[in-house]
């Protein structure tokens, strides 16, 4: 009798622990202390026998960065331990990462040559809204940090995309974007595609907002970012130590208004999955494919399909339903490639309480042509 009771209690405790740590899409994801994981817009890497999840530590109220970039560790992708702040804001007035700046979309990569962990992120300077539009670099000897802030910068001042012909440069220089009044007209679109914003920012450097970092099979790293007022994506090669740009870069989908870029290499092709530009509100995802990281990129249909998602953004909220055509209420942040399975990692932004924004990890499947397909999956780790 005593043994049966003991076994029953044990089962109850085990299922309770499993439930507590069950990562269920559409609901808060508790860490090992029971707190919703506060690592948004980030990425996951594997180092040794552990995974590390980096992301924006967001306050419950407000939009600015008060803490920094948070890091969690896990051995099984299910139970995540909060390892604290990997890169903290400073109290130094005027510093690039002074508390009150905006740090977004951090991506950490391990450089096997230098044995360093390199973090790139989108940085906005304190009190300047989203106008600085910089990319920042930080570095660490260990995965949990503390990372050392290196610098923040705009991109490629005084440099043209590597494959832009003389005639194309001339066309980009023909229009003064500052003098252009009416946006969204067919004429404006044409000038945007020709590169009037590229030219506007040519001397001071190109804008860099939503971003990702992609490491190719040969170890080369690339930074992909929303530039030119979020109208055009840029892909830029990083130096072998990942701490700078080589200067080689190119545009993707000029004037296409793509944000939240995520990149995957599968079946010898590069698949780029992005969102449109509607701020925190979800929209339809876009997909592009190319045989080379330098393009040409072909636009495809959104990979999101199938039945709606039901989300429980907050314990006090009513459930909300989102269709595949709205990326299940989310915006992508990274594609975690584990070899046998790839996860599309995304955030369901909750702008009233950014800290509570949900995480979605959706396994990617492939159709018979090898094109990515993403369906709603409630339990991402159940086969
Ligand atoms: C989104 C972007 C987020 C954040 C937000 C601010 O479009 O993806 O990372 O910048 O806008 O409104």
How would you sum up this structure, described in words?
The chain is mainly β and 383 residues long. The chain has a domain at 31-153: Tachylectin-2, Chain A. The protein has helices at 2-21, 166-173, 186-194, 196-200, and strands spanning 40-47, 50-57, 68-74, 81-88, 102-111, 116-124, 134-140, 148-153, 211-215, 221-227, 232-238, 245-252, 259-266, 269-275, 286-290, 298-300, 309-311, 320-322, 331-337, 342-348, 358-366, 372-374. Strands 1-2-3-4 form a four-stranded antiparallel β-sheet, with no helix packed on it. The model is unreliable at 6-21 (pLDDT under 50). Residues 41, 104-105, 210, 259-260, 279-280, 331 line the site of beta-D-galactopyranose.
Q: What structural class results from the helix and strand content?
A: mainly beta
> What ligand molecules are bound, each kind once?
beta-D-galactopyranose
Number of helices: 4
Number of strands: 22
CATH homologous group name of the domain at 31-153: Glycosyl hydrolase domain, family 43
Strand content: 35-45%
The helix content, as a percent range, equals 10-25%
Entry keywords:
single chain, 383 residues, mainly beta, Tachylectin-2, Chain A, 4-stranded antiparallel sheet, 4 helices, globular, binds beta-D-galactopyranose
Write the layout of secondary structure elements.
Layout: H1 2-21, E1 40-47, E2 50-57, E3 68-74, E4 81-88, E5 102-111, E6 116-124, E7 134-140, E8 148-153, H2 166-173, H3 186-194, H4 196-200, E9 211-215, E10 221-227, E11 232-238, E12 245-252, E13 259-266, E14 269-275, E15 286-290, E16 298-300, E17 309-311, E18 320-322, E19 331-337, E20 342-348, E21 358-366, E22 372-374
Antiparallel strand pairs: 1-2, 2-3, 3-4, 5-6, 6-7, 7-8, 9-10, 10-11, 11-12, 13-14, 14-15, 15-16, 17-18, 19-20, 20-21, 21-22
The structure holds beta-D-galactopyranose (GAL).
């Amino acid at each position: 009798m005593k043994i049966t009771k003991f076994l029953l209690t044990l089962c109850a405790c085990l299922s309770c622990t499993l439930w507590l740590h069950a990562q269920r899409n559409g609901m808060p994801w508790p860490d090992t202390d029971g707190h919703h994981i506060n690592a948004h817009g980030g990425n996951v890497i594997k180092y040794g026998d552990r995974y590390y999840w980096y992301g924006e530590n967001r306050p419950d109220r407000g939009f600015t960065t008060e803490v920094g970039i948070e890091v969690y560790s896990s051995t099984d992708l299910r139970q995540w331990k909060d390892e604290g702040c990997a890169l903290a804001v400073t109290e130094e007035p005027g510093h690039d990462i002074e508390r009150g700046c905006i740090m977004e979309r951090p991506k950490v990569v391990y450089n096997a040559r230098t044995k360093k962990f390199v973090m790139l992120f989108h940085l906005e300077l304190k009190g300047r809204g989203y106008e600085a539009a910089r990319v920042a670099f930080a570095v660490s000897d260990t995965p949990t940090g503390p990372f050392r802030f290196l610098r923040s910068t705009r991109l490629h001042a005084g440099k043209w995309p590597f494959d832009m012909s003389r005639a194309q440069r001339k066309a980009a220089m023909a229009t003064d974007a500052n003098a252009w009044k009416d946006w969204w007209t067919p004429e404006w679109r044409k000038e945007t595609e020709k590169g009037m914003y590229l030219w506007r920012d040519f001397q001071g450097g190109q804008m860099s907002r939503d971003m990702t970092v992609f490491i190719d099979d040969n170890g080369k790293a690339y930074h992909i970012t929303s530039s030119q007022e979020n109208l055009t994506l840029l892909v830029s090669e990083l130096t072998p130590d990942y701490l700078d740009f080589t200067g080689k870069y190119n545009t993707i989908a000029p004037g296409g208004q793509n944000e939240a870029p995520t990149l995957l290499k599968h079946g010898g092709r590069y698949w780029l999955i992005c969102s449109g530009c509607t701020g925190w509100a979800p929209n339809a995802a876009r997909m592009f494919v190319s045989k080379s990281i330098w393009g040409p990129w072909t636009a495809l249909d959104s990979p999101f399909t199938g039945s709606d998602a039901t989300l429980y953004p907050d314990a006090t909220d009513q459930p909300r339903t989102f269709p595949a055509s709205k990326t299940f209420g989310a915006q992508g942040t990274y594609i975690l490639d584990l070899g046998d399975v790839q996860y599309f990692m995304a955030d369901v932004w909750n702008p009233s309480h950014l800290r509570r924004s949900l995480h979605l990890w959706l396994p990617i499947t492939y159709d018979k042509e090898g094109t990515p397909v993403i369906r709603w999956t409630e339990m991402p780790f159940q086969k």
